[in-house]
């Protein structure tokens, strides 16, 4: 049994008496200790997926259907008390900006001790000792002194390390990391990702890494989900997707990487932009930007099919698969 199974998850947002679909029936699994990347442009539905998995959506957003099964139990049907016990305890989330995550009027120690005592029967001193150990694990210098400091007294990299330490406080089985290095310098980004990878490996923690950076995904994750307009359009082993992408959108993302362009040349980009939720095109949502689009793409939503080592939703890929099948039959 998978640690986490998401089935036909649909999320909508109310908009002036109408509703728009932000996630359209997505399904995927995460095994124990597995590292899964979720990539796509802004507006693809990556962060909403993470919030929906934790059932943290607030109005006007709401879950319209589907299941989020954690160890076989549907998170969406749990009572408020059961969900509080799950969040931060067995499922933890690392948000984009540590200054938003951390309470500016409480010391680091107060926040870590409070988190521990909310889920464990510990004395204040026992909780503080565990917090000190966790800060050491993420290479925070002088951890005991840091417990008495406020978030604004620490650097951005140190704050993000503390956020990771807080996510690991209660030894969760799954961490959802939503753009965990967005606000950091490039050198610090590498340190944070290396630390997160080390923590997941040493503790056999499952990781769902939400990012737009395919370079990070290629180094950290074992499997990748590519999202576009609220759908998963390609999924498979990270190495397969990076080395041999099948969907035109995934190909465009990889071709847009700076290292794919010779020095002095203009960077490649995917023409156009992500469609807005209230103006979604008919058929395949990527067809207005796709160089391979045909009449079928403009009218019919492609189904997800297995092709090579990945699952992909693309009419052109399905046509190639059909041609190969016909050739093999002959």
From TrEMBL:
Transmembrane intervals: none
Keyword line: ATP-binding, Cell membrane, Membrane, Nucleotide-binding, Transport
Location in or out of the cell: Cell inner membrane
GO annotation terms (biological process): peptide transport; transmembrane transport
A GO molecular-function descriptor: ATP hydrolysis activity
Superkingdom per UniProt: Bacteria
PROSITE patterns: ABC_TRANSPORTER_1 (PS00211), ABC_TRANSPORTER_2 (PS50893)
Membrane topology: Peripheral membrane protein
Gene3D superfamilies the record matches: P-loop containing nucleotide triphosphate hydrolases
Main location: membrane
Glycoprotein recorded as keyword: no
Gene Ontology, cellular component aspect: plasma membrane
The family this protein is said to belong to: Belongs to the ABC transporter superfamily.
Protein name: Peptide/nickel transport system ATP-binding protein
